[in-house]
What we know:
The protein is α/β, with parallel strands linked by helices and 359 residues long. Helix content is 29%, strand content 23%. The chain has a domain at 9-124 and 178-255: Rossmann fold (3-Layer(aba) Sandwich), CATH 3.40.50. It contains 12 helices and 14 strands. The strands form 3 sheets. It has an 8-stranded mixed β-sheet, sandwiched between helices. A hairpin with a 2-residue loop joins strand 1 and strand 2. The longest helix has 18 residues, at 203-220.
Amino acid sequence: xxxxxxxxxxxxxxxxxxxxxxxxxxxxxxxxxxxxxxxxxxxxxxxxxxxxxxxxxxxxxxxxxxxxxxxxxxxxxxxxxxxxxxxxxxxxxxxxxxxxxxxxxxxxxxxxxxxxxxxxxxxxxxxxxxxxxxxxxxxxxxxxxxxxxxxxxxxxxxxxxxxxxxxxxxxxxxxxxxxxxxxxxxxxxxxxxxxxxxxxxxxxxxxxxxxxxxxxxxxxxxxxxxxxxxxxxxxxxxxxxxxxxxxxxxxxxxxxxxxxxxxxxxxxxxxxxxxxxxxxxxxxxxxxxxxxxxxxxxxxxxxxxxxxxxxxxxxxxxxxxxxxxxxxxxxxxxxxxxxxxxxxxxxxxxxxxxxxxxx
Length: 359
């Protein structure tokens, strides 16, 4: 995998035109009710997504990272309206799609597709590959020779057109994911949500699928929301990266800024866990190890939800909720009262006395 380059000329940031938002989420929340008792009364809520503000620009790849259970996949399903949010709005090409009826949403979903995490579970084992890939064409009543289109798609994703009549069990995991990608691009969508598309694959196959996604993005002018646990993969494919913790975005920045100088302690701890290929440096490095378990989204901590595990937390953090705000740059935002200072190493920040602007 080769890292994306930077291009700041002609109003571009990392090769992406600035200010052209394809997707916007504002105050997005998904609180699942907890029911108990014979009467199944609501006794609480699981705050899976708890007030997310996010924008995705045309032509870019926005990486979305965080620990399991932080709300990444739920956020993806809210964007697609596979589940209805508790509050907030989702705008696609400037239009609020949460008020759309079934017919209007069908038109929107032609432009927003998804590649699922598990290539083994996302394909119907009783359907031949040709029928799986052509299913979106039939659903949206696309005219033309479907069989010819499917054969073209198979070739585009690196499979043989002769695979048209084969079944999913005849393919490897990497090949199945290519079939999933072919199905996602069948309608020429504008946005594809990749929900951990390589997490179930071997490392070498991961690289092939990521490279395929990058090639397709260039060829078809696609926009991606790329969800993953592996920060190394996200670094290679993303233009900007958003970090989620307990249903909230705690930091968002362009790739070089987030990986070079993380401002939120949680981001720093995630980055410090990335292995270094040099054995000597790997042995000598100082890691930032978070103590304690991830709190339950059904009963999150008061104030800053990260304060129970944060090495820089103060009493102020326990009672006040931080908001995403610029960190000396309009392109780098973090929600932290005591962010890591510019030029400060995260390992030093974990043990140094925190400083808050205005103190």
